[in-house]
Amino acid sequence: MTLDACTELVRTQDPDRFGATLVAAPPDRPALITLYALNLEIARAPFQSAEPMLAEMRLQWWIDRLEEMGAGKPPPLHDVLTPLWDAWGADAGRLAPLAEARRRDCERQPFDSADAVAAYVADTAGRLMVRAAERLGAQGATLDAAADQGLGAGLAAWLRALPRLQPIGLGLAAEDTAETAALAGMAREALARAARSRAMLPKRAAAALYPGPRVLPFLETVRRGDINSYRQVIEITPFQRRSSLAWLALTGRWWRQGG
């Protein structure tokens, strides 16, 4: 079991985080790659069965393994958990809340408000970015800025995914454009708070704080109601993705990602 399986998983399933990982210093990359591979696995665990109880059992398996790792017990040989243990050791136990936050996905229940979505995103994408930034040197009060950046980036990603989430009962209970506009506003405010705190964060953490390409223009489009967020998908072109990652690599600026 090597890092290669995790690398391929992230490269094919999470290209934005994969690209940002390549900007990180080589010694930091295994920790990021294994963290993001774990995130992909626990995110899809609730969807491996249409039966909520079985879906939760699959998710619980991941929670149990992470808690065992936190207690110092190496995992069974596994394409993701073995490299995760090599990179994180007992600190992998601190990643169990990422899986706990996915329990509601097993229930296939839509969100009843923008605030409920924001709370879920803070516990998933927000917490993921905090753990990544912490591993790359962020600490103390700077983790609040990482949480804000994760919330803003996570809300943007959730809104992009909404046309796929809505049909399977994981979107919003009512297709209200005021709710999506509110979410876009929350995301912009969170990203702005993080940007104001950028001087506090170590430059080394830039790869962990990357929000993805064209985040701010997309959020403004949603906020203005220029698209039907429940139906329309705005695709990211390969050129836009490469340009955005090149900007990160050349400048180290993870904030105010417009291009």
UniProtKB/TrEMBL annotation:
<dbReference type="Pfam" id="PF00494">
    <property type="entry name" value="SQS_PSY"/>
</dbReference>
<dbReference type="InterPro" id="IPR008949">
    <property type="entry name" value="Isoprenoid_synthase_dom_sf"/>
</dbReference>
<dbReference type="InterPro" id="IPR002060">
    <property type="entry name" value="Squ/phyt_synthse"/>
</dbReference>
<protein>
    <submittedName>
        <fullName>Squalene/phytoene synthase</fullName>
    </submittedName>
</protein>
